[in-house]
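Limitations
The structure tokens in this dataset are predictions for the assembled complex, not deposited experimental models. Users should treat interface geometry with appropriate caution, especially where small molecules or nucleic acid strands are included. An illustrative entry is reproduced here so readers can see what is and is not provided.
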Amino acid sequence: MKKYITSSSNKLIKDLIKLKNNKEERFLIEGKDLLDLAYLNNLLEMVITTEDDDEFNNVETIIVPKFILEKLSNNKSVQPYIGVSRLPKVSSKLGDKLVYLDGVQDPGNVGTIIRTALAFSYDGVILSKDSASLTNSKVIQSTKGALFSIPLSNQVSLKELKEQGYMIIVTSLEDSINYLKTPKFDKFVLVLGNEGQGVKKENIELADTVVRIEMGNIDSLNVAVAGGILMNHYRG
Amino acid sequence: MKKYITSSSNKLIKDLIKLKNNKEERFLIEGKDLLDLAYLNNLLEMVITTEDDDEFNNVETIIVPKFILEKLSNNKSVQPYIGVSRLPKVSSKLGDKLVYLDGVQDPGNVGTIIRTALAFSYDGVILSKDSASLTNSKVIQSTKGALFSIPLSNQVSLKELKEQGYMIIVTSLEDSINYLKTPKFDKFVLVLGNEGQGVKKENIELADTVVRIEMGNIDSLNVAVAGGILMNHYRG
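Predicted assembly:
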């Protein structure tokens, strides 16, 4: 399934350029490692490459000159493979250990939290609509491939999760207790808030427990660091 | 101590532009919050601003048109204050709880680790020469002001610290034990390694204990997240 394209005014190339920084279900990924992961998870739809090889069998492969890859890339030094990938489907049945991102906006933080959730065997990461998009290229890069290996969704509200019987653990500096003094739960959602504003008031009101990490000199931790400490604690 | 400059070919402005992304002792900081912190710590040497006010008494203040601030800024939307700051002096006597960054290269990671070290009351962060520079604008931004409140140095080797009686705790995925099974120490250095390569072999050889964080699905944590979990544990 190979095809050769040498003009950047080709309609397919123009459509691909539109996928750069898009917010849709299909998105571009860069670098062979990420393409391998998407391929293994049956999520790779197309390969655009300067290499005339058969690395990705059964996937439509477009051979292009380097300048076209450069047009598609978000990086300064373009890698020889760019892919079009889909997001993993979220099954209607979510697992018992979830992380909920309530307006986490820095793409690096969102990606790092997804990576940590996978490392600590969480069952999924739910993102509020005002969190950074899963198809943002910096989110994808920061997940280091975890994106393809853990269920992700931006279609579930915290209220719905509470109705499904999840214990809601919210992080907040105010009216909270030291997380080390809280029990662990079998079925829970750990809620991490926006970098500046924290968790939204309506979500704090859903909390079964509101926790904080004790600090010394300043009450300030990066949300991915705080999230990592709490995910590590509650994973059981 | 006010001065008005309206030309970007002015020699002072040209010298300031050279400070952008410099690797020297003096560096540019942006935004009133950071300038306030530098001022409080007696590290602010000069203010360049579009505001004709007396916010920073006793500090040389240069009033400029907005286009000159834009030439000095690393941000797309420039803030009305840019400052020239020095790094805090490191006293020859370091405290008992230190973090050592062995080739940590992502500026966001370096800044986040410095911020976490301050929050968890560490006494200082030491950076190897091949770590991201303390005067990199992204490092400064990620510290969220912690830069001015915790001793930092890139002039001390891990070998010297060992000779000074610090217990050396190195993080590594190989030949390591679960950090939860290690004792805590009164005087120690927690060593965090490069994002891809980990801690250098010669530094692993200096270790008194080599630790890892147990993971489930993938052996992969962001270094600032891993550092946060371990700093939180060992702070005692």
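Some entries come with short summary sentences. For this one: Chain A touches chain B through 30 residues (CB under 8 Å).
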